[in-house]
Write a structure and sequence with these properties.
Length: 100
């Protein structure tokens, strides 16, 4: 899933980040985060870094609105939502329209 950032930023390495690729998380990602720390915030940082390929210092540069979008997308996927639903597109609407 591609998340377009509302507030792009430049990493410490000078790379401009305008979007983030977020693959569907696997159980192994959750297990690794739990082993990394008992702290929920540290676990979230670990997961988001692991999934997006960012380092913590760059993840910390995310605007709060973009962080919320990333978190919402992750939660939607973790609860079984389709990637398109997590991106704010409801595939059911399209399916209902074509079923008629």
């Amino acid at each position: 899933m591609k998340i377009l950032l509302k507030f792009p930023f430049t990493t410490a390495a000078g790379v401009r980040i305008e979007s983030l690729e977020l693959p569907r998380p696997k159980r192994s990602d959750l297990k690794a985060a739990q082993k990394f720390s008992d702290d929920a915030i540290d676990q979230e940082d670990f997961l988001f870094c692991r999934l997006t390929g960012l380092v913590v210092e760059d993840l910390d540069q995310l605007d709060v609105a973009d962080n919320k979008a990333l978190s919402d997308a992750f939660q939607a996927m973790a609860s079984g939502g389709a990637i398109t639903q997590a991106a704010g597109r409801d595939p059911a609407v399209g399916a209902a329209a074509t079923a008629l």
